[in-house]
Amino acid sequence: MIAEEILVRQLKQKDLQAKAFEVLVNAYKERLYWHIRRIVLDHADADDVLQNTFIKVFRNIDSFKGDSKLFSWMYRIATNEALSFLKNKANKLKLNEDQLYSKISEELRADVYFEGDEIQLKLQQAIAGLPEKQKLIFNMKYFQELKYQEISEILETSVGALKASYHLATKKIEAFLKEQ
Hints:
This protein has 180 residues and is an all-alpha fold. The chain has nine helices and no strands. The longest helix is centred in the first third of the chain and has 24 residues, at 17-40. It is globular and about 55 Å long.
């Protein structure tokens, strides 16, 4: 892949934008899909949010200042899009967010795109019961193996707060799994 600075410059040049955007999508679509999928859980929903994320990236690339990595900026957009999607879905179904997470984690059994076994299903249910920020941090650290510094840039919070949230999340998940 070409250097990030060059890609950003090409994304901001109208004559090079289409090709650069294709490179960007190919480079990040899988990582962003799985990030989004861990938040929304459903494959079709993740595809919709991913598409919205890339539309937002394309429309707002001129406002990207380079204060963070392009990757971090896109993850922040993907995270916000996924959370907004879930809020809207909860409102449409007249559920609060906890009820929605519980409902969609239960629906994983019927999801043909979910390849997990019973243990993985229980883990997803445990994660669904976490507060939103702990859920995000746990998913980014545990599944995506991001470094605390990267998560800090994406969520715009301190590394110390992230470590504390991750620790609390793991304790809550352990307690949930022991109860099962």
